[in-house]
Amino acid sequence: MRVGLFIPCYVDQMYPQVGIATLHLLEKYGCEVEYPADQTCCGQPMANSGFEHLTQGCNDLFIKNFSEFEYIVCPSGSCTLHIKDHLHGGDGIRKKIYELVEFLTDVLKVESLDASFPHKVGLHQSCHGQRGLKMSQMTELVAPPFSKPEKLLKMVKGIELIELTRKDECCGFGGTFCVAEEAVSVKMGKDRVADHIHHGAEYITGADMSCLMHLEGILRRQKSPIRVKHIAEILDSKG
Amino acid sequence: MSKQDHAALADAFNKDESRVDWHDQTLWFVREKRDKAVNKVPEWEWLRETASQIKNNVLSNLSEYLTQFEAQAVQNGVVVHWAADANEHNEIVYGLLKKHGVDRMVKSKSMLTEECHLNEFLAEKGVDVVDTDLGERVVQLAGEPPSHIVLPCIHKKKEEIGEIFHEHLGTPAGNADPQFLTHAARLHLREKFLTRKAALTGVNFAVAETGEFVVCTNEGNADMGAHLADIHIACMGIEKLIPERKHLGVFLRLLTRSATGQPVTTYSSHFKKPRPGQEMHIVLVDNGRSTQLGKKDFRNSLKCIRCAACFNTCPVYRRSGGHSYHTAVAGPIGSILSPNLDMKKYADLPFASTLCGSCSNVCPVKIDIHDQLYKWRQVIVQEGYAPVAKKLMMKTMTWVLSHPSVYHTAGKAGRWFMLNTPFTVNNGLNPWWKGREMPEAPRESFGQWYKRNRK
Prior knowledge:
The structure holds two protein chains of two kinds.
Chain A: E1 2-5, H1 9-14, H2 16-28, E2 32-34, H3 44-51, H4 56-66, E3 71-74, H5 77-86, H6 91-96, E4 97-99, H7 100-107, E5 120-124, H8 127-132, H9 148-153, E6 160-161, H10 177-180, H11 182-198, E7 203-206, H12 209-221, E8 227-230, H13 231-235
Parallel strand pairs in A: 1-2, 1-3, 3-4, 5-6, 5-7, 7-8
Helix pairs in contact in A: 11-12
Chain B: H1 6-13, H2 17-38, H3 44-60, H4 62-75, E1 79-83, H5 86-99, E2 104-107, H6 111-115, H7 118-124, E3 128-131, H8 134-142, H9 158-169, H10 178-195, E4 198-201, E5 205-207, E6 213-217, H11 221-228, E7 231-237, E8 241-242, H12 248-259, E9 267-271, E10 279-285, H13 289-293, H14 309-313, H15 315-318, H16 331-341, H17 358-362, H18 369-382, H19 388-402, H20 404-420, H21 431-435, H22 446-453
Parallel strand pairs in B: 1-10, 2-3, 2-4, 4-7, 5-8, 7-10
Antiparallel strand pairs in B: 5-6, 6-9
Helix pairs in contact in B: 3-12, 9-10, 16-18, 19-20
């Protein structure tokens, strides 16, 4: 199965280890993975700020880089959702792009993992993955619970998933919101972090590095020993 | 844009962090009550879908339902008035009061009259209006607008309400016992109910089939006002219609569970015809609603039944307070309704959201609130209401991200600066850094690593 690896711009530049873990995981499950070198960004930062009309360049680049693949996989729910909802002229692409977790559970149908992470871990449900891609049930709805990231994390040896008081509250990153509405963004992040701390997390994980980057910034400002790790890094940890 | 935008007002609200915590927890408690209540109704999602479809039908046939409603109401002996905008609405109400020589009126909860700024209008004409909903009375005495459409004084602590009552109602200083204060308000309001000849109420649902309207309150204040007054004026937006009486069985089940977690409001009062000797008036108000109805992307915001569930769930609202929205209807729904009323003034509101989508999920009539926030952002920028600095930043970003070689060079340069001259990013000019550390820049990007290891 030929997979085009889409690594969001900020992950490429700031969190290469997340890209590496994603690549490892896909290769481990027999995918033939290729990373098109000319990729940049899905265009979401502009579009969510009201400048969708400026995203044609990103849009065209994306189509050029990824049209040929059977699947496109991305370790970010938010960027994946943006492509699914807002890519113009790439109908085929919109149907074959997957966020990493859902690709593992729904396409590769992973039932076991050779991974070990003997730590207390809090799962941050990033909104676009959860409410947008429906990776987990949402607390607002009267509907049976499920969680794709939790399902995978429970296959990791030694991991202890903590419960949270607010299971799926937004962390306040929100793209350009994080600087445009700095005060509320930081307060939301502090409150999210406090929930994880209160329940004894050693690590906060999630399927979107952008939320984790925001929470990491707050944790480090607080000089907290708690670390963030993208879910790919935990799933790819040595068994 | 108003004097201060949402971000600035929210920043001011956040100067007192313990107050933000209190505000957040108070409203989160209401969200949790809502969750408990809706989870007791196994057919909840079916109810939401049904309500949504009923309202879609209403919006698609609004003129027919309005005409039907008017004909029925007239037949019932009610006088029906049509107001194109806020000013016409205010003039109609004032005209009725003037005709009867009335200069004092009681008014139960009506967000429409807040939207039309009726109280200020009537005050200028010398008419004294007493808001009889307890929360509204509190903010009225405080000289503030409501901060929440269901819980108007939710931003006030009980000690502050004690002070307001001490100042205006003469309760003992320092007494903040809710039961005592409620009793004081009851005595104060009873005198108003008994002496006012005119009562204005809002309308929650107007039934096209019968010409009746339903007013939902927990305090019975709409009934007290309407039953004691010689003139009852009910003001409603034209979108408040439902086709048939039986549809109330859907909406009344949804409304209060969504709003406060109660199974139903204490009073769901049906008004159909005036009692002998009484005059009953209905004012049907457009005020931008027809315009919104004509906008494909935004029309279904008119399905709103004003439950405020989107306020209570909104993580931004809970941490910025209702007044930061500087509009009558705050919260996520206000952010998609207000730009229709005045795009320039409310250009900031669709950006006061992380687009987390929780609002759309709690909405009992399934308005796609967060998608509309996204769409309003596009419209506002296209109409030229984006700040110049932001436009410039977006154009630069677009240029970098549309050219892979520029992107690679910029990425390398950016990481070099972060690694070698951290002071260039860790300073007061960087709003990220104010409350957060910057991420630690790695030596190489994923792209560089990939080239070394896989190609």
